[in-house]
Write a sequence for this structure.
């Protein structure tokens, strides 16, 4: 069964499978958008005037005028239809916030920041978390294993805002080593190239540390348990029995199999790349996607909310597909299912 | 740290930034001469850089005490929780937008520090005998930031734009009352109302927009939303989304060039972070909460670097009753509750003393304020007496009953406002002492308004009103304003108040208005449709190098262009 067919027999199967998956994504996406559209319109409050709520200067006529302007006076299904008509042309519409900018522009402005921070911290998580997991599996139940476990769980359990504020107070206000918030100093434009790099790096140390620290637990535990699982298998005993050194057993036989579940995590974290955490971004004043989403929700800025949700949903589905494919690449047993 | 002792670094001229730049200059010349920079060098220089960046702080406690002489230069950095949304002020409803825009645009008139109306773009104005027509004489020396002269046509354009149904503005209300607007000549502008309208004059403090840049274009899609051109003391420089807005001084400003060269508003969405930035000198100015003002800034290093200013803020917090509620219909019940609430305890305990007791809808330093009204000092006996007069009897369970119904009600409070939630708790305790059972419900703002206030589905609420500079309070107290989304949501109806409100609104005679508002306050004090709780103080910390700041009834920002930093104390090079 394993890789039985020649490659030219496998590919058509793969392509058909991929196509099927891609086509299945369409009704899924449609369902997601309908549900989100209805839910956000059900929340009390309306865009535009929400900040002006209880403002004596905003008269009833003005309110009606604004509603009509945004098309909120039409029934919900028509509003949805209008939105859908635009979105299939990849037109995300114009934000209801008073800046009236195209949604896509607002998202574009923030995605690079969020994605790069998330990429760096995800990389760090994998680079640090996987070795920790391997180490803990290899040295199960030793003091160091327990200490490392305690460490990663401390990171998982500590509330972000609390830890962030403590570190900001210590490194920012007390030691004055690192800047407190933002991405660049205010005089960034007047800096030399080297200073610019130092400046951005200085600003990024704390946020990236915080976001990576919280994610270590998940990946290292996954790694540890899946490696332990593999180490219990008979073929590992066989490998040991035929006299292979531990290093080779671990690297060549155990790790390859133990890494499979980790691949799933990579796939599942694709949508996480564009999603930022509101708390984390607010504390460090990072103008990322989390804040944008939060502010849009608070202002009932429907087009922006929907825009972010659609992109998020699409990436989630894509991530699932990706992890399935990666799985097949890594594990020949899954290739022809 | 020992670097500090070297004379070059130890000059005590204030702050890190200058040093840092100085050092980098040296650094680059050093690299040129040496060419080869070993790793060791690199590391030591980096360490040096860190030291001089972060460790040079003025330690002389009196360094900033010298007032010096006004000089042009330096930068002020402020911060805002939210990012401005749109710098065309008529399109924005958020306060950060208006704050930035206030530096960029002017209105025809403005308030001076004592809240009197003075000219801004208008040199003078004349009100006709019948109080219907206002003729503005405009200044002739005003130019837009792009050099084009400002004229009456700009005013006309702004008026037409605001009243245009296609403009999504929240501020059309006052301008729709204008019957006719006319440009007499380039520097004379005349408006006519169909009825005398007292808040009419100050409504022209709205930002005047440039006709030559906006005419014939879709205002909602104008580049001016993000790159405004105005007539004000500061010009727009840059806006980095999500990070900051930068303005620079307008050298040709008609009231004189502002001393402070740059104004930066940083966007810092978290207030704890903002406070840390203040402590770290990352921002120069910030509004403080009571606990920050009283406790967290009370240490020598902070006092060495910052001044704190305090003035009464334009707002009050109240406990409002649904007057349709069978118990609250009775004036004696409302008065009893007012007697039972200890306002002083609320101010001392929750605001840490940063407020004054409110007894009406104005703050004590306004001309419309009447201090001579019925007061309700904390008095449990009086409260009990009034309640028994109103027919309440104490039951077995220590709760008052009337007609077999226990006196229980719920106070609604909006989520996220700690002060109001704590107020509700104190009120709950005080009322339980006289036999009234209070429940507290905390609700998110949008549903608070839409589900409870708009549907009149509440018994009592704790809310706040901002106090307008003009004392017109028609929208809140007139009996006609009880419709959906209107602001008399407690259903207050009083014929005399109705008449007085209308009268005060349609006369321009300030003494006459004063008499009306004084009487209204007497009635409100007697009726107690709200229990007015307190007017909080605004506390602002500003870095000590800024001089010339004087708190007044209007706050502190009214003469920002006269603030300055003595040359020796300047911190930012530009």
């Amino acid at each position: 069964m394993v890789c039985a067919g020649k490659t030219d027999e496998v590919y058509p199967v793969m392509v058909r499978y991929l196509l099927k998956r891609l086509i299945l994504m369409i009704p899924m996406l449609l369902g997601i958008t309908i549900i989100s559209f209805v839910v956000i319109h059900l929340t009390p409050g309306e865009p535009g005037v929400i900040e002006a709520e209880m403002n004596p200067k905003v008269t009833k006529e003005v309110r009606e005028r604004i509603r009509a302007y945004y098309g909120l006076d039409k029934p919900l299904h028509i509003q949805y239809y209008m939105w859908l008509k635009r979105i299939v042309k990849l037109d995300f519409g114009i934000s209801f916030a008073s800046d009236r900018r195209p949604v896509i522009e607002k998202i574009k402005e923030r995605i690079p920041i969020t994605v790069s921070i998330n990429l760096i911290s995800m990389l760090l998580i994998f680079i640090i978390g996987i070795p920790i997991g391997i180490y803990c599996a290899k040295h199960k139940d030793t003091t160091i294993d327990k200490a490392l476990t305690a460490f990663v769980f401390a990171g998982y359990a500590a509330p972000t805002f609390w830890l962030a504020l403590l570190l900001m107070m210590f490194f920012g206000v007390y030691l004055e080593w690192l800047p407190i918030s933002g991405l660049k100093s205010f005089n960034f434009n007047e800096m030399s190239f080297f200073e610019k790099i130092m400046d951005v790096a200085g600003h990024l140390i704390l946020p990236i540390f915080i976001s990576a620290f919280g994610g270590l637990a998940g990946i290292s535990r996954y790694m540890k348990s899946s490696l332990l699982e593999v180490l219990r298998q008979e073929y590992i005993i066989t490998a040991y029995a035929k006299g292979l050194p531990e290093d080779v057993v671990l690297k060549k036989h155990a790790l390859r199999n133990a890494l499979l579940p980790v691949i799933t995590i990579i796939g599942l974290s694709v949508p996480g790349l564009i999603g930022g955490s509101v708390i984390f971004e607010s504390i460090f004043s990072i103008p990322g996607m989390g804040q944008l989403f939060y502010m849009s929700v608070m202002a009932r800025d429907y087009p922006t909310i929907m825009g972010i949700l659609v992109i998020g949903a699409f990436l989630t589905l894509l991530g699932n597909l990706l992890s399935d494919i990666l799985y097949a690449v890594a594990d020949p047993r899954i290739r022809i299912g | 740290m020992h670097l500090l002792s070297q004379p070059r670094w130890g000059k005590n001229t204030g702050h890190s930034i200058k040093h840092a730049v100085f050092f980098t200059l040296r650094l680059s010349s050093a690299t040129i001469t040496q060419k080869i920079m070993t790793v060791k060098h690199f590391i030591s220089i980096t360490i040096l850089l860190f030291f001089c960046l972060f460790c040079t702080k003025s330690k002389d406690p009196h360094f900033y005490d010298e007032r010096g002489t006004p000089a042009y230069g330096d930068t002020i950095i402020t911060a805002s929780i939210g990012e401005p949304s749109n710098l065309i002020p008529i399109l924005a409803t958020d306060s950060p937008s208006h704050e930035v825009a206030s530096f960029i645009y002017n209105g025809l008139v403005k308030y001076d520090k004592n809240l009197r109306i003075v000219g801004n773009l208008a040199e003078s104005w004349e009100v006709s005998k019948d109080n219907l027509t206002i003729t503005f004489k405009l200044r002739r020396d005003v130019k837009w930031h792009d050099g084009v002269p400002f004229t009456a046509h700009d005013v006309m354009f702004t008026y037409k734009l605001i009243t245009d149904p296609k403009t999504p503005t929240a501020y059309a209300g006052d301008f729709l009352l204008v019957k006719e607007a006319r440009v007499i000549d380039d520097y004379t502008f005349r408006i006519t109302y169909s009825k005398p309208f007292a808040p009419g004059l100050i409504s022209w403090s709205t930002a005047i927009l440039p006709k030559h840049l906006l005419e014939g274009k879709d205002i909602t899609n104008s580049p001016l939303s993000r790159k405004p051109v105005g007539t004000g003391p500061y010009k727009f420089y840059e806006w980095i989304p999500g990070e900051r807005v930068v303005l620079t001084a307008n050298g040709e400003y008609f009231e004189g060039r502002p001393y402070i060269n740059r104004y930066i508003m940083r966007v810092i969405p978290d207030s704890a972070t903002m406070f840390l930035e203040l402590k770290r000198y990352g921002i120069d100015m910030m509004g403080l909460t009571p606990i920050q003002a009283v406790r967290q800034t009370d240490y020598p290093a902070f006092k060495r670097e910052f001044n704190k200013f305090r003035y009464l803020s334009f707002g009050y917090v109240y406990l409002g009753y649904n007057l349709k509620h069978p118990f609250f219909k009775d004036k004696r019940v409302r008065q009893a509750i007012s007697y039972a609430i200890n306002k002083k305890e609320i101010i001392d305990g929750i605001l840490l003393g940063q407020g004054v007791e409110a007894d009406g809808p104005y703050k004590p330093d306004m001309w419309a304020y009447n201090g001579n009204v019925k007061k309700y000092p904390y008095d449990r006996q009086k409260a009990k007496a009034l309640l028994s007069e109103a027919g309440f009897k104490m039951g077995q369970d220590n709760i008052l009953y009337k007609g077999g119904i226990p006196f229980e009600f719920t106070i609604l409070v909006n989520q996220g406002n700690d002060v109001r939630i704590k107020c509700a708790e104190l009120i709950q305790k005080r009322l339980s002492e006289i036999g009234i059972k209070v429940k507290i419900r905390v609700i998110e703002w949008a549903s608070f308004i839409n589900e409870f206030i708009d549907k009149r589905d509440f018994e009592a609420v704790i809310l706040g009103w901002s106090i307008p500079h003009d004392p017109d309070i028609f929208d809140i107290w007139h009996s006609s304003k009880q419709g959906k989304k209107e602001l008399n949501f407690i259903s207050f109806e009083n014929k005399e108040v109705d008449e007085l409100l209308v009268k005060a609104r349609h006369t321009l005679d300030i003494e006459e208005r004063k008499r009306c508002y004084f009487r209204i306050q007497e009635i409100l004090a007697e009726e107690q449709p709200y229990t007015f709780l307190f007017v909080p103080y605004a506390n602002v910390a500003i870095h000590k190098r800024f001089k010339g700041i004087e708190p007044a009834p209007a706050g502190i920002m009214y003469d920002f262009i006269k603030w300055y930093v003595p040359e020796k104390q300047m911190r930012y090079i530009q």
Observations:
- Chain A touches chain B through 58 residues (CB under 8 Å).
- Chain A is about 75% helix and 0% strand.
- The longest helix of chain A spans residues 193-231.
